[in-house]
Amino acid sequence: MIVNIFLKETIKIRYYFTSDLHLNHFNIIEYCGRPFETLKEMNTTIIRNWNSRVKPEDIVFHIGDFCFKNSAGGKKGEGVPIKASILEGQLNGKIIHIRGNHDRNNSTKTIITKLVIYYGRKAINLVHNPDYIDINYSINFVGHVHNNWEIKRIRRGEGFTDAINVGVDVHKFFPVTFEELMKKYHKWKREMSKNENKDDRKET
What we know:
Purple Acid Phosphatase, chain A, domain 2, alpha/beta
């Protein structure tokens, strides 16, 4: 399901973006080099960081892979038998889930695969996996790639879009605002322009 939403921030409500919490997924600590010793430490830190920023009236767009749910006796480190709703109940704000590749069986039950927001005079596509970005939008907010990269220009044919990773692994395990993402994005664009100018001078 694809959804379009027009956002207007009010005095009381703020919007946040994040992805790939992987709550209750012990093995992600090793896979991504997360700075935690135990599953409890990871869960507690992520939940505490979330609630330190997000107020009960705020809205959070979670762009995939919220938690891991496993059956008793299932593969070790790949989740615990706790429903997503139990974890959601510990987090402030209204969560809008965009489905990730690990959200099929974790009880988040979201039907949204892509979502387009209109905010800050920009139309932005939200999708979990960068393989499914929409080239018709100049910016896509994505997850899935964890700590592999923060911002990447993805080209398709003669067009391109800039994909911004909102995942916790590159944002110190905090949800982030639109303004914070745009600040990083504009800095990245300036650096990219400088590098392109250097390359042009070398060629001449």
